[in-house]
Design goal:
With about 130 residues, this protein is α/β, with parallel strands linked by helices. It has a single domain, classed as Arc Repressor Mutant, subunit A, CATH 1.10.10. It has six helices and five strands; from the N terminus they run βαβααααβββα. The strands form two sheets. It has a three-stranded parallel β-sheet. A two-stranded antiparallel sheet has the order 3-4. The longest helix has 13 residues, at about 50-65. About 15% of the residues are buried. Mean pLDDT is about 90; it is low at about 125-129.
């Protein structure tokens, strides 16, 4: 399977709101290569990309289950837990949940993650100046 890299940024909710408003107003243009997916903290990113969830992504990527039911059997995780976890990952662009007939087939969109954060985030109070 080809590697698919997702660039992730970490920025406070307040800075993210300021950044979004500045983009809408035409005051800020995102840099080429800037993350498209943002978490408000390392903790929130770690919850979504926990070791258990990384293993789940690995299983989906390798086994290519045709449905959540099949994934439930392969992983031993309850379907309600899988559904909730995968919907969260879908919101962050990590997986796609493809509806086919009456089944939902999970598909991994990102296999590798590059995280960008620091004291001088790409957009923040100092960038407004």
């Amino acid at each position: 399977m080809p590697r698919k890299v997702l660039k992730i940024g970490i920025m406070s909710r307040e800075d993210y709101k300021r950044r979004t408003l500045a983009i809408v107003r035409g005051q800020y243009t995102p840099r080429k290569g800037e993350p498209k997916v943002w978490f408000e903290s390392l903790k929130s990113m770690a919850q979504v990309l926990s070791n258990e969830n990384q293993e789940l992504l690995r299983v989906i990527n390798e086994r290519e289950p045709a449905s959540l039911k099949e994934l439930e059997i392969v992983t031993g995780r309850k379907r309600s837990n899988l559904s909730r976890t995968l919907r969260t990952m879908e919101r962050y662009g990590i997986v796609d949940l493809i509806r086919e007939n009456r089944a939902v087939r999970p598909m991994v969109k990102a296999t590798d993650f590059k995280v960008e954060f620091g004291l001088n985030v790409p957009f923040g109070p100092q960038a407004q100046g």
